[in-house]
């Protein structure tokens, strides 16, 4: 199930509320297991969360874990070694601190958490040393793991003062079972430790069985990897001086092992709450852990590669971002830009971004400022519309000058000599047609119609033909004059002169006087071919009766605007009806 308060998963054990048996008259096995887990707390013992009754069932909620039997086949030798070490420390705690005996050490009583740690459970047969008797062993022997039960335990309990021999024997059986197919190639002294557990821990003479605490000094449990793991597990029990010395040298000690092994076994431990809040760890350990490698330059400085970081550490960081602790949040935000690319867009948008928006509303000004800088790192990934939201628009312009790249000049090709049968007039017309468009005159309204444009082109062509007939350069038979020599350069020069002359003639046409542009005074001769630039501006007045202006007959000429004076009607100007 999922705990909605802190969004962490839990495991729930379900048992019957009534069980037959001589040991379960007052409490069922699950109820006793729940009671002992709640009393005996240790980092290597399964963590108790809650328990309750419902519908003739008893429920026990513990930390997320699965039985060892479900995952033992997938465990490598190093993981098994670490797991046996954890179980051994839990038993030492029960024997030396709580003075109780577990009485059922086997794979069924061990659970594996999501980070790979082995936790001791199955506490239904726990009994204090003072209450341990042959009667209790006789009643419980049928329900305990058969192979882990000492055949002579009832006789030993009466003839010896020791009460820890039951767990010593069962632990020896456990070691032999989980290490039976392993060799020294994986871990040094593995075979020696397995033989020791078989011969010494299962010895018939109870007095010669060593205490479990002495096994912690065996070479099998004293290589560097196990020592680091053990210290991180027992971190709450260590002094400040021990923590400072440990974290000061931890980075160099971890470099002796493959990064995948370190990430899989130590990933969650290195990101635990006690490590994140330790000042020495913040300064000398976490900068190397929270910054994945991005290139060859980071290989010597940072520890985990990007793929390993994404697989083992990123899921843990997603959980930590939900923790509302100012110091932990500031630590993550200061390193956020280094590992932000290890999250997917969905994780950033659904998990990280909502938590950052919560931090913006905090009363801690420094936390708000760091959170805002972190939000800036999300904009290139998620986009401003997702991070900022709201209505946005383009309020700024780009004022940089536009740089036009220079085009390389092409070598001008020499004009080839014109063929003998080529008429220069035709080339002249082609040049004229390719000239840039003449700018519109000032005061022009609207656009020139297609008919007017076509008429203008025809008039220009007629002018060119008239000019060509008087041109002394061209002969009637179409042959070039003496100016057109075999040199192509001379032909091009003549064409340029002709075009220049025509443009000059067109520019020499002057506009009429301003008085002549007046509609009342404007008159043009039938023989005047000047182009009327204001023909589109002629007003059109529609009336039922035409009133003509009387003009002097001497000045009256026929033109487009020419009118004749006639006397019609008996009124001067418009009548009321026509108005």
What this model shows, in words?
- This protein is an alpha+beta fold and 579 residues long.
- Helices cover 43% and strands 7% of the residues.
- The protein has 23 helices and nine strands.
- The chain has helices spanning 29-39, 68-71, 77-98, 134-140, 153-159, 165-178, 190-199, 212-215, 224-233, 240-254, 259-270, 273-276, 279-284, 286-289, 306-320, 326-334, 336-339, 345-360, 365-382, 384-387, 424-433, 450-469, 488-508, and strands at 2-3, 8-16, 48-54, 57-63, 65-67, 100-101, 110-113, 118-120, 127-128.
- The strands form three sheets. It has a four-stranded antiparallel sheet, covered by helices on one side. A three-stranded antiparallel sheet has the order 5-7-8. Strands 6-9 form a two-stranded antiparallel ribbon.
- Strand 1 and strand 2 (8-16) form a beta hairpin.
- The longest helix is centred in the first third of the chain and has 22 residues, at 77-98.
- The radius of gyration is 52 Å and the shape is elongated.
- Residues 1-304 form the Protein kinase domain.
